[in-house]
Amino acid sequence: MLQVDVCFSPALYPVYHHPEAIVVVVDIFRATTTMVTAFERGVRSIRPVATVEEAEAYKQVGWLVGAERNVKRCPFADFGNSPFDYTADKVAGKDIVFTTTNGTRAITIARAAFRVVIGAFINLQGVADYCRCHQRNVVVLCSGWQDKVNVEDTLFGGALADVLIRSGAYEAGSDAARIAREMWTHNQADLMAYLEPTDHLARLRANQLDDAVPYCLQQSMTDRVPELSIEEDNILVLRSK
Amino acid sequence: MLQVDVCFSPALYPVYHHPEAIVVVVDIFRATTTMVTAFERGVRSIRPVATVEEAEAYKQVGWLVGAERNVKRCPFADFGNSPFDYTADKVAGKDIVFTTTNGTRAITIARAAFRVVIGAFINLQGVADYCRCHQRNVVVLCSGWQDKVNVEDTLFGGALADVLIRSGAYEAGSDAARIAREMWTHNQADLMAYLEPTDHLARLRANQLDDAVPYCLQQSMTDRVPELSIEEDNILVLRSK
User: Fold this and answer.
1) Which residues in A lie closer than 8 A to residue B12 (C-beta atoms)?
2) Spatial separation of the C-alpha atoms in residues B47 and B94, rounded to whole Å
3) pLDDT tens, B14-31?
4) ipTM of the complex
């Protein structure tokens, strides 16, 4: 039986790492939702970088750059971390660079896995199909907030675990997957009510950036599954068929 | 408003650490349940040590020693990690040394907090009263299993968070406390059913060591709250009034 597990924080990744597994990186509010959206809008590739300095260096040599820290767009950047910034007229056919507070760091941490893909509620079924096609163990890596556990990424881990386990091909890899799946099954009927008192929603509201929250909770509106490759000079690039 | 938080694994402790908080270390199956039981049976003090080597060195100079690794009693030890090992005729009035796979390590990690106390379902209300009397923020440190998240310790975190929040003096410190509290409120009516498929129960059963599980889930049968002090030569000692 294949196993699906949920790693609640990048700080826990070393104990959930399995070199032969598919790692699904998730940062629902908003980095991975935004990356999937950019591919849906026609972006050709995304280079996730861990630091603002790297992103700014790319900007200086002419790249389009999305950059966010502590929910806000960095002043030098073309885009912030809202999925609504990445419209087809701006990104279709383009290669862009992207850095966010938590999400892009999680991608870097997981790079040694068999495959690293980008998950969000908006491509939930696409990610589940990808995992089942590859017939591999799956680890959902929650980006969290500065290594703290958050509700929304854990919920996504529970949702993906639920789809995979109900398919009959997967079982829970550990208690973490059981906890996340139960959160999902208890709350999927009203995600907004469950998310109402959570940390990140408060942060987004305080900065008038919660307009994208309902969009981030829509399920399976695209089949795009961005996949990480490590290219020449050790550069990380996300592409999607 | 005071805050109660739940740290799901020792590996996450650096991001939940607060030097002015009370840290409640929990390892339901079975280290902290066993330590509380030993105090209830009249033990005078417990020295938690992180390694088997330290425990064995104490044994060689005549101490009573409880020592467990991977659920089994170490061959040299007087006691294993079952609460039933610590009977009044063996431990009343005695000072003992104790080491377990996960629980004693968690105590060592949290030592820099304002106070470190030992929590379990069997002293749940006593720990809640202790926290409220001190009027301090609270962090529940789940011992987990080799840094992985487990259900039973997280449930205890949710139970303590629930008691403290319902008292009106505390609020959830982060999403982790919200997740744990929801697990507790959904499952408190039938803990055994919820724990049935979990990792640690399977390990205990495989070693015929699940006899103490119902005992470990009893609530508030003692008011003993073992408290950590750091004594001469940096030695850690647990005592209870």
Assistant:
1) 9, 11-12, 147-149
2) 11
3) 999 999 999 999 999 999
4) 0.92
